[in-house]
Amino acid sequence: MDGDDLESEPSDDSEPKSLAEIFTDAFPYYLAMGMTYDEFWRESPSLVRAYRKAFEIRRANKNWELWQQGVYIYQALRCAPLAVGFAKDAKPERYPDRPLPLTEKEAKEQEEQRERENFFAYLKRMEAESERNRKKLEKMQKQEVSENGGD
Amino acid sequence: MSDIKAVNQINFDYNGKHYCLEYNREAVKRMEAAGFKPGESGTAPLIELDMLWAGAFYKNHRKESSRVIEAILEKMKDKVKLLEALRTMISETYNSLMDDEGDEGNVEWTATI
Q: I need a labelling partner for B85 at 20 to 30 A (CA). Which of A11, A23, A66, A128 fits?
């Protein structure tokens, strides 16, 4: 009966766990974090804090990698002709020509590199343009000389 | 003269030998198997001190004879503070699993033998 259950003595499960039991319960989690048997049971007890911190850092890094991989896949799908085919005037996007920057510093460096490349490309265009103009001028001068000589 | 640095270690020299007392989880497991119940209110402080003291030798000085261990304890002067330090040290084996605190909260204690 329910009443009997309520009045009965608490079971062994309700007794507080011993420290040894708490350690034994926690041990597999720290094994999963990369801790060895000796480190958990025989080394300084506070070592587990460093392992937890390291685990958090590893997890954050992994999360970042997965996010970045998702960005690449997203970009790749946007470049794919099949996906582009659904939209009438859509043009396939170019796949990034370099890895995505992971930090603001990297982003800034990539931006500066891009600006440098654009500037050199502009200089080359200017040089080519000036070469064309010079040749054009020479041609006109020759033409003028030959016309004056004919008089 | 000895330096007692709670929470993690107690360091001192005795008869020309350096001792570094600390707990690990294996020591606590063995202490419990031997009948020690941390935090139990019914335990007499002197019995608790004896068990905590002997258990603190397990990690680094497990081959030390019980005669020497008892002799050193006998010579320790401030036993109230010693008991407090040992309790804090043993609780670190448990607290380190539960919190994210660093070592900033450690208390330093100097005692004489």
A: A23
Environment class of B53 (CB within 10 Å of its CB; exposed 0-12, middle 13-18, buried 19+): buried
- Enumerate residues 6+ apart whose C-beta is below 8 A from A35: A47, A48, A51
DSSP 8-class letter at B77: S
Query: Which DSSP symbol is given to A46?
Result: T
What does pTM read for this prediction? 0.62
When scoring A15, A19, A33, A36 by the number of chain B Cβ atoms within 10 A, the one with the most, hence best to mutate, is A19
Using an 8 Å Cβ cutoff, are A90 and A84 in contact? yes
> From the list B8, B29, B33, which residue is nearest A46 (CB)?
B8
Residue window 88-107, chain A: list those with CB within 8 Å of chain B.
none
- For A41, the closest of B25, B96, B100 (CB atoms) is B25
Cβ contacts of A16 on chain B, cutoff 8 Å: none
List the one residue out of B63, B57, B41 whose CA is nearest residue B89.
B57
Is B96's CB within 8 Å of A40's CB?
A: no
C-alpha dihedral, A18 to A23 to A25 to A29, nearest 10°:
160
Which tens digits make up the pLDDT trace of A58-83? Answer: 988 888 888 888 888 888 887 776 66
Interface check B23 vs A, CB under 8 A: yes
